[in-house]
Amino acid sequence: MDKALAKFGNDNAIAFSGAEDVALIEYARLTGRPSRVFSLDTGRLNPETYKFFDDVEKHYGIRIESMFPDAVEVQALVRSKGLFSFYKDGHQSAEVSGRLGH
């Protein structure tokens, strides 16, 4: 985190997906430097996840930016590979990862 802050200054971002990432948000807060926080919202997150995001936003006084995959490309992927292809290959499909912005 220190290297990222040194290299990117105030133009850094934290990818947030769950509880373990709160440590990064806390560390960024302790440095006193602003950090954008974002999350990939696939439309398949559990309601508890959205509640947790809301709790983190309120606690830290931040906004977690939601990033969404391209719906047209996701639909094409589901038609060609099926609804659960991402899970079947252990999240290794280059085609899937590319469409989700990885």
Overall geometry comes to: elongated
Topology, number of strands:
3
How much is the radius of gyration in Å? 16 Å
Low-pLDDT residue spans:
none
Work out the helicity level: 40-55%
Structural class: mainly alpha
> Kindly, what is the distance between the CA atoms of the first and last residues, rounded to a whole number of angstroms?
20 Å
Question: Count of helices?
Answer: 6
Word description of this protein:
The protein is mostly helical and 102 residues long. Helix content is 51%, strand content 12%. It has 6 helices and 3 strands. The protein has a 3-stranded parallel sheet with strand order 1-2-3, covered by helices on one side. The protein starts with a helix and ends with a helix. The relative contact order is 0.13. The model has no long low-confidence stretch (mean pLDDT 82).
